[in-house]
Specification:
Chain lengths: 168, 154
């Protein structure tokens, strides 16, 4: 009988430690963004997130737009910040690109390589993409950059799931 | 890449593309400097994970090199150096140590150019937006160090 009681106490102990750990993680982690599989992200974020970007301010030059949302995985609920490069194409349509390099997942930047202006450049293995996200042949990436789904509400840009590149 | 199974599997498939290792260095202090030690750890963990995110495809982020305040810093330098050498022996080309601990300032010894020292910024009480701005500023400075190294060798 007493054996039974001890094991119950142990059980409680374990449980409480677990909860404590969770809470500690909650306090430490909110700023950490996890690099997540775009696919996972899509299903987690199924809906659209408001950015601070006014659609009227978009030009034909890619602009960096940050947007944050809360994401849950098995352990943490964390604030994730994603980056999008957004511009209006010749037809005035909005294009929102995901900067995760299709080679091995580094973050690409716009117009940072002097030798190749007006392209997306990946510092890791010098992958390049043209403005519309198409990978430049002869550089490591074999696929174009993914895109975000988007919508416009009250003049504000909303971004959603990551989807494979499609012609704008 | 992080020190987790999924990323390491990816590493093994693409090994020839990953030539850089990043090691955070964290001093533990449970005395008067306890709070500061925790704060540095917090800052560095975020910073390192941001760097990892940006350079995922070329870099492995190792678990931190952790130590108690050393009685003499030479011993500490040596053990850091032996980390570096072991990593180089595994075929990596670049090893970077990153730390906020002022112990290492002007005390790089043979670690030389592998050591990146940055002052830690207390994040407590800052609003989220500002925190992010601040971090991304730090990250891009450090990012430059890597990008330069890589460009030079190209
Ligand atoms: S990860 Fe972008 S070129 Fe390799």
């Amino acid at each position: 009988m007493s054996k039974h009681r001890v094991s119950r106490r142990q059980f409680l102990n374990y449980t409480l430690t677990g909860v404590g750990g969770f809470m500690a993680a909650g306090m430490l982690m909110p700023m950490l963004r996890f690099a997540v599989d775009p696919v996972l992200e899509a299903s987690a974020g199924g809906n659209f997130v408001a950015t601070k970007q006014k659609v009227a301010d978009l030009t034909d030059k890619p602009t960096r737009v940050n947007f944050s949302f809360t994401q849950k995985d098995a352990w943490y609920e964390s604030d994730v910040t994603n980056i999008a490069w957004v511009y209006k194409n010749n037809d005035g349509k909005i294009v929102a690109l995901n900067p995760t390099c299709k080679h091995l997942g580094c973050t690409v930047d716009w117009n940072t390589n002097k030798d190749h202006p007006n392209q997306f450049f990946c510092p890791c293995h010098f992958g390049r993409y043209t403005k519309d996200g198409t990978n430049v042949p002869g550089t490591p990436p074999l696929k174009p950059l993914d895109m975000y789904e988007y919508k416009v509400k009250d003049g504000i840009l909303y971004l959603g799931a990551v989807v494979p590149h499609k012609e704008a | 890449m992080k020190w987790v199974q999924k990323d390491i599997e990816m590493f093994q498939e693409a090994r020839e593309h990953i030539d850089t290792v990043l090691v955070p260095m964290i001093g533990i202090d449970m005395g008067t400097g306890m709070k500061q030690s925790a704060q540095m750890q917090e800052f560095l963990a975020i910073l390192a994970s941001e760097i990892e995110r940006q350079f995922k495809g070329r870099m492995i982020l190792l678990p931190p090199f952790t130590y108690w305040p050393p009685s003499d810093s030479l011993t500490l330098q040596h053990s850091a150096l032996s980390w570096k050498n072991s990593i180089l022996e595994e075929g990596f080309k670049h090893v970077f140590f990153i730390t906020c601990d002022s112990l290492w300032r002007g005390n790089e010894g043979e670690l030389g150019g592998s050591l990146i020292w940055i002052p830690s910024i207390p994040l407590e009480g800052l609003d989220d937006h500002y925190k992010r701005e601040l971090m991304s500023g730090q990250v891009s400075q450090i990012a430059n160090v890597f990008a330069q190294k890589w460009l030079v060798e190209k």
